[in-house]
């Protein structure tokens, strides 16, 4: 491979696994010591959020030019490491306009407008990007007066300048100013339209979204996606969202996954699968999120089998997240053998995977099997988390297994002050006929759990004792439980 081909491969790399494989190949061929390739590797790791790998390559480079320094500066800024970004900036042999713009943007994104203003003021000839970074920073910090002052002082504006301020006005509720500024943009492009429509959607101004969308001279898939998300996510208007989806000239994986989620929430699995099959027919490859949404839709036995078959057919059964979602789906449909089979065929089982199979058995009343998996989890050296204990404790509580539930609570090496855990302990304690909780505001949820348990058992004496403790905390919103207890006592 020559240098140009390698740089193209590096630029197109989108996963950490591929990045490391490609990096290894570059090292084996001795290309990593070339300045151009080394800089490309730094940018690649920075784009993937791997700051330490980028820094290691940068520090090992035999020589660094202004581009390499600026790329490393961008990596820190992109990752939000302001202090490292600042340190690198002042270590640079020469701070040019591009590097200064990166530093100004980093300051602005962290709300450090005083530092950004000083840096901007020291520039002999600020570029349009420099001005835009300052205006964007003031907008992000809510200083619209300062942003407008800079906008008015700016000697030459591009469409980005107009779009930044216009969007910010809309986000802060200044509709008239936003629309007036938008109408004055000399050359609007599709990004300008999309940006303003998105801002109005975020602030609940759906009528403006629709009007602007109808006025657009041309639309791209982003335009349609924004309107779809406005109806579906911000306004929860599924009917209109579905209409927008059907009117879209093309669909991408994100929008299709969203409509599948919407169908699933409404219980229309076959519509969700139909959208998925249409996506496949158009050559759009589903991602793990798509499959997870399908699993969420498969709430009935015949539906779960259909989804599982689709996943197997498309060779996604070895993906950890997807397999975990399949286990959860089978568990909700009481297909415990199917859930265990998927779990047993997973190449790697994470804590979340173990939680899924434990919850499947616990949810279906087989607490012994759930506890068995919990013990296996320890033998496999997989650390449980708070969800693991909560699922098991809740199941023990419902099955009346007080000693087992209390043992779980005291055995966890996690902070035991979580309110949900205390609620389980309260319920277990009430079932055992004794209460050991502190009468504090922090544990009010636990007290109400104990009270509910006493109501179920008809244990009015302990129930009245708990009521006295709740009343001392002054929580009127739990009056319904209290009235229920008194109703039972009569």
TrEMBL record:
Keywords associated with the record: Repeat
Top-rank taxon: Eukaryota
Gene3D superfamilies noted in UniProt: Tetratricopeptide repeat domain (1.25.40.10)
InterPro entries in alphabetical order: PPR_At4g14850-like_plant, PPR_rpt, TPR-like_helical_dom_sf
GO molecular function annotation: RNA binding
PPR repeats: from-to residues: 65-99, 127-161, 189-223, 252-286, 350-384
GO BP field: RNA modification
A Pfam family assignment: PPR_1
UniProt keyword Repeat present: yes
Name of the molecule in the record: Pentacotripeptide-repeat region of PRORP domain-containing protein
Species of origin: Selaginella moellendorffii
